[in-house]
Each structure stands twice: as structure tokens, then as C-alpha cells.
Amino acid sequence: MSLPNPAELISQMAVRLTAHLEQRAISEPRYIGIRTGGVWVAQALLAELGSDAPLGTLDVSFYRDDFSQNGLHPQVRPSELPFEIEGQHLILIDDVLMSGRTIRAALNELFDYGRPASVTLVCLLDLDAAELPIRPNVVGATLSLAAHERVKLSGPAPLQLELQDLAL
Ligand SMILES: O=P(O)(O)OC[C@H]1O[C@H](OP(=O)(O)OP(=O)(O)O)[C@H](O)[C@@H]1O
Ligand SMILES: O=c1cc[nH]c(=O)[nH]1
């Protein structure tokens, strides 16, 4: 399978996100990237939009539903949200949506900070495998992988996608 070029996806996502925000009359969105890949995508998206809006970063490790099984990754860092969550229109950005469990964890963490007016989900790739009722509002591309395949984003610049085979 050939994987899409992340730079091309970011440029299409910027167009789609701009239309989404206009349609909903959201004038001051608050951008939040999920570590690690989601922060890289968020930085690239803000650059494409020509925006110098502050970027919040979330580390959802403590909120994962597999936390008690897997423990804490040694690189975990606190989330940094340089703005209020209460009443704000949030743009939550991640690189890959697969089961939806990362986004579930991110929403749980965000709602511990306050009650946003809305949350728009932006993902570079949707693997169309959601185990939860979570879908992106803005997506770069939708891919169908075999059960033994995964994609991995590397970054921050250039952003590159690699196909990994769990069977190897
Ligand atoms: O929808 P899900 O099944 O939860 O999978 C999606 C998540 O998987 C990857 O995160 P990972 O935990 O590998 O961390 P990383 O961003 O640091 O690579 C990816 O960055 C997404 O956040
Ligand atoms: O293929 C996958 C699935 C989940 N998360 C990733 O980063 N890649």
C-alpha cells in the first residue's frame, strides 16, 4: 500500500478546517495537539493556516483505559494548556485515529479542566476502525489497513508516514 504525503494532507485539512470553522461561525478556536504525533500535526496545520495562535498540548497517559495494564511511559510530561477550556471552541488534533481510545482519554482530561463550548476533532489519518462512537470532523485521509498493519508518523519536520507490519 502507498501512504499519502503528509504535507499534501495538511494543506487539504487546512482548507477543510477553515470551511468547518466558517460554517460554525467559530472566530477564536483554541488549538490542542495530543502528544506526540498530534502536536506535530497541529504545528504543521497552524503553519499552513498562517496562524500564530497558542498551541495547547495534551499528554493523555494518565487517562488511558490501559494505564493500569501498561503503566507509565518514561517520557510522560504534564499537559500544557495556555488558555481557558471553559466556554471555548476547542480544536483537538491527533495524527492517527484507530480505536478512538486516545480521543476518549483526551476528552476526559479536557473536561476535567472545564466545560468547552464545542470540540472539533481533526486527524491526519482515520484508520476506520473505531471501537467507540468517535469520528473526526476534519480528516486528511481514511485508510483501511490489514489487521497486522500499523502506520507510524515521524516528525516534527518533515512529517513522514511509514507502514509497519506487526507480523514481521
Ligand atoms: O485511536 P487509538 O487506537 O487510541 O490510536 C491512536 C493513537 O495511537 C498513536 O499514539 P501512541 O500512543 O502510539 O503515541 P505517539 O503519538 O507518541 O506515537 C497515535 O498518535 C494516536 O494518538
Ligand atoms: O496504525 C496505528 C494505530 C494506532 N496508532 C498509530 O499511531 N498507528
TrEMBL record:
A motif (PRPP-binding) lies at residues 90-102. Regulates the transcription of the pyrimidine nucleotide (pyr) operon in response to exogenous pyrimidines. Also displays a weak uracil phosphoribosyltransferase activity which is not physiologically significant. It comes from the Bacteria. InterPro entries: PRTase-like (IPR029057), PRTase_dom (IPR000836), PyrR (IPR023050), PyrR_bifunctional (IPR050137). This is Bifunctional protein PyrR. It catalyses: UMP + diphosphate = 5-phospho-alpha-D-ribose 1-diphosphate + uracil. The keyword Transferase applies. Belongs to the purine/pyrimidine phosphoribosyltransferase family. PyrR subfamily. Coiled coil: none annotated. SUPFAM superfamilies: PRTase-like. It is an enzyme of class 2 (transferase). HAMAP family: PyrR. The gene is pyrR. The keyword Hydrolase does not apply. Residues 28-137 form the Phosphoribosyltransferase domain. GO terms for molecular function: uracil phosphoribosyltransferase activity. One of its GO terms (biological process) is regulation of DNA-templated transcription.
